């Protein structure tokens, strides 16, 4: 079951001081370089890391707490904590990351630790807390409504969201964990000569494209083999390259991808395709796979594409948004305009306001001025 995301809240992350952003079926964020678009994208990736229990490791890999915490001036008394929140239709998950206190065990004084977590049900007249975590201790509400307390059950580097897996007793927690884990982030597909996109993939049924696109050939072939046809994929390819069609070969337990152009005598293998053509095929696979994730985030998908491919890309994204939620971060005004026309949405402009990343027209309460 897909769990629609309705809003995200981000506080004290890089250039994001505090923002509450509503999320629709298709969310398009447009902005120039340096305004913090990628920080919005990365904050969503950290929420997924919370579901897999790897958020503190991901922060260290980003450069540590000093690299990810709010980079601007702090008011006296401000806590140096990164706060993230995912708001769904009737569930609300939040997590806080900070540095060790003097009495907390950590490998270093700069190690990022999970300070707090919560999960609330918001469908009733009043929110009901289903999980509350503070440091190593946590309590969860069981299926009978009683609190179940776990003292010293967690180490500071792991999340309760990933640690407690009992669908029978904690169904809502499992629902949120699965929803966040199912998200896919696609950015900067490698198209160099050594790119895995250019190599045959293992011939294994692949319902969803991997984030790095390494199983491109298998993801596209799966739609053809399982469904017997692939009209959406064929239409997206014809839209970009009139008369072209995919071709597959299955050598030695692998599947090799080719593209047959109308004016060529034989299909071109993935290793022969231009960077832009290969990147477009990866986007087709990401947005037209056999099973789409509950949420897809695209970071500057126009990169390396010829301007002629922008309208087909917009149509591809708009079509995928009929099946799942799509989040697009771009600095391409033509792509944003094409998406507005194809999907009937309003792209939002990312700006810097008082040194912090902000969305033009966004109010503090999380709505846009023209919506009121």
From TrEMBL:
Domain ATPase AAA-type core: 176-335
Domain Endonuclease GajA/Old nuclease/RecF-like AAA: 5-49
Pfam families: AAA_15, AAA_21
GO biological process: DNA synthesis involved in DNA repair; double-strand break repair
One Gene Ontology molecular-function label: ATP binding
InterPro entries: AAA_GajA/Old/RecF-like, ATPase_AAA_core, P-loop_NTPase, RecF-like
Protein known as: Putative ATPase
